[in-house]
Amino acid sequence: MTDSNDPIPNEPFSDSRVSDEMNVANVHGSILREQQDPEDGYEPIPFWLITLFFAIIFWAGMYLAYNSGGFRSDVFNATQVSWVGGSSGPVAPPDPMVVGKRLYTANCVACHQTTGAGVARQFPPLIGSEWVLGGDWHGDNHLVKILLQGLQGPIQVKGENYNNAMPPWQQLKDDQIAAILTYIRAEWGNQAPPITSEFVAQIRESTGVRSEPWTQAELQAIPKQMISEAAPAAPAAPADGAAPAVPASPAAAAPTSASAAPAVAPGA
Questions:
Q1: Could you tell me the pTM of the whole model?
Q2: Is residue 84 part of a domain?
Q3: Which among 64, 75, 244, 256 could bridge 102 via Cys, Cβ 3.0 to 4.6 Å?
Q4: 35 lies in a domain?
């Protein structure tokens, strides 16, 4: 009995049989060569895109650090416009203490702390500091110069030695520096006159183009100047329709005739 799968005995070899076997091989070969089409989404992220992503994150962090006000709800933003009330009258200038607190919180609190006590043996305190309030050779002009160009090297504050560096803040405007100094001179129990933006502008102009931080020896060699010694403001203009006041001369105040002399009591 022969198996049905066995080739037929004595079957002659034919070209058609070979051709059928070759066609089957070709068909299977083409199927094996077929691969799934590639799909998107598996390529690595470009390096430039990663760099741009981290650059945006860094910029956003710096922006928040300088403009967040410490995320405090009680810090006032002087540049914020509010339409509540719809008042068309004159807008009162912002309180320098409020503005100064906001700027201090954004720029100075990391070293001098919210309490103004500083950090022991690292950053000097602002409470009762002769550098802040003035005293001995320390003047208000020295305080403004420190904020403009910074400070480096050993210094003495309230009898304690410190040796660190303070960065310059000359990128701040005159009114911003004045607000910060006004705040620290009246906060935490300090009692000193406010610093005006005109005084800051005067010190900035006298300093010139200096960019190097000051040292205590350099500041001590500069004569001190207090805000109370600054030039007084010009007299206010007279109201509309009012004639300007003319100071009386000494000659006009003196009597010009005998009749203007005071009467003498009889029997004197």
A1: 0.55
A2: no
A3: 75
A4: no
